Amino acid sequence: MPALASHRKPRTRVRTTAPAVGLTTAALASVTLLSTQSAMAAPDPKPGVEEVQKKVDDLYRQAGTATQQYNRAKEASAAQRAEVDALLDDVAKRADKLNEARRTLGAYAAAQYRSGSITPNATFFLADDPQSYFDQSQLMDRMTSRQQQAITDFRTQQAKASKKRAEAVRSLETLTTTQNTLRTSKQDVQTKLGEARNLLSKLTAEEKARLAEIERKKEAGARRKAEELAKQQAAAKAEAERKAEEAAKGSGGGSGTGTGTGSGSDSRATTKAEKVLAFARAQIGKPYVWGATGPASYDCSGLTQAAWKSAGVDIPRTTWDQVKTGTRVATADLRPGDLVFFYDDISHVGIYKGDGMMIHAPKPGANVREESIYYMPIYGSVRPA
């Protein structure tokens, strides 16, 4: 009997170890859960300087696109406001004419009523619309030609007034839509610029220095490309002059009418380009302000529009319309005064000054300056005149 009792004790010890195993498993699960939560709660890594620069440049480009949308809506709004004002003035004038015609008809109707030629029931029609009274066939025969002309005038003025009122309503609806677009574009510009400023404000002094170094390298690379273009253009010009001299010698040195006409045309174009560049140079150092057209500040298309206006040439307000003005030219054939457009969305423009360089209003926070045309991806170029 004692031997049997000794065999029961190990079973009790085995059972007491089970809770320890369970506790260890629970602890491991808790550690795993905390590790997972910590990993999930870890903040995103801070973007590198190169990534910040790319984002900022893209935000500035988007702001430029929104600026052109704002410029277009603002111009359209001004034109539509002028149209609405003119229509409302016209409606008021026609209302006066309509009231005058109504008074004339009323005078005729009152005279006939006093003479007893109409029944009292007819005064019901006369109260609101004299035409309803005069439309009665039995009375039309009694009217003089002067009275009939008064009816015709009333009907004419009534129709014109109704037409003008309808036009004014449509114009007001269009104006409202344009003004909504104007507000949306303005908010879009401000949002994009705010995002760019926020990204830049988070950079440390060291990161800002690195960003400035990246910018210097970008500018240096663009300037080298400009120098290459300047050499190519100089070589092409020298070759053209050589061929012109040979052609002149071959023709006996005479100057035909065709050559003279061409020279005169080139001379006029050169004079305009000189005025454009003189104006643009005078604006260097003035701040870029989106939506501005001068004289204290400009956005990119505001500067180009003002510069060409100084030469007596009116071009549209936005880059999207300016690119359709004049003659398209290849980059290799650029001349001073030509307009160079950038990005696939044609959201920026500058004035070519020669040697691969341009004068432009770059972006918020920067002033009007000279810069290589290769600083941004070129879309195309035009010669306004």
Description of the structure:
A six-stranded antiparallel sheet has the order 1-6-2-3-4-5. The protein has two domains: 49-201, Orthogonal Bundle (Helix Hairpins); 267-383, Alpha-Beta Complex (endopeptidase fold (from Nostoc punctiforme)), CATH 3.90.1720. Helices cover 69% and strands 7% of the residues. It is an alpha+beta fold and 385 residues long. The chain is built from eleven helices and six strands. The longest helix has 66 residues, at 49-114. The protein has helices spanning 2-16, 18-41, 49-114, 122-128, 130-134, 137-140, 145-201, 205-250, 257-282, 300-310, 319-322; strands at 327-329, 339-342, 348-354, 357-360, 369-372, 378-383.
Integer-rounded radius of gyration: 40 Å
* Total separate domains: 2
The strand line-up of the biggest sheet is 1-6-2-3-4-5
Proportion of helical residues = 55-70%
Per CATH, the architecture of the largest domain is Orthogonal Bundle
> Class of the largest domain, according to the CATH hierarchy?
Mainly Alpha
Strand content: 5-15%
Low-confidence sequence ranges: 1-10, 12-29, 120-127, 255-261
How many β-strand stretches? 6
Report the mean per-residue pLDDT as an integer. 81
Q: And the CATH topology of the largest domain?
A: Helix Hairpins
Assembly level: single chain
Could you give a short account of the major beta sheet? Answer: 6 strands, antiparallel
Described by the principal axes of the CA atoms, the overall outline is: elongated
N-to-C span: 124 Å
Computed structural class: alpha+beta
* Total of helices: 11
Order of helices and strands: HHHHHHHHHHHEEEEEE
